Amino acid sequence: MSRITREELEAARDRTVPDVIASGLSVLFCGINPGLLSAVKGEHFARPGNRFWPVLHLSGFTPHRLKPSEQGELLSYGLGVTNVAARATARADELSEEELREGGRLLAAKVETLRPRWLAVAGVTAYRTAFGDRAARIGPQERTIGDTRIWALPNPSGLNAHWSLTTMAEEFGRLRAAAGEPPRS
């Protein structure tokens, strides 16, 4: 793909990125919402500085580092990806609390239908707002959606300097082990 222009990015505002989902997944990963580059490309976590794809591999969920364009391969590992809020923005803080709460309601309905073993929300602050759980911390949550357990993960955005690639991979690895998934790396 040729270099993406500022105009193309702005035109992607409010677009959506299709979910990569199926029934009965081991883990359904959930971002906050698509960025503008993700909306242009139609690929989750497409920004080069985003650490989702490297961390997914380093934690053992995938045998090699997938590119955003290879997101469909997630299904072969029993994994999927969706978002709390569907509309693309330049920054997650452009979303209102009501959008996140509504996204949480829609996400819960999606999870009730698809019944993954784990829902992994990448962004504890968004999780707190979407599910009304102000005390939530990184890690497994007490709340469930039906039989689906929930794990709050650190946000893989390159802007999240509190978590290094290594510490983020360790947390994702804890989820992988809890989900009973063998290391694939």
Automatic annotation (TrEMBL):
InterPro entries: MUG/TDG, Uracil-DNA_glycosylase-like, Uracil-DNA_glycosylase-like_sf. Pfam families: UDG. SMART domains: UDG, UreE_C. GO terms for molecular function: hydrolase activity, acting on glycosyl bonds. Keywords: DNA damage, DNA repair, Glycosidase, Hydrolase. Residues 18-179 form the Uracil-DNA glycosylase-like domain. Its EC number is 3.2.2.28. This is G/U mismatch-specific DNA glycosylase.
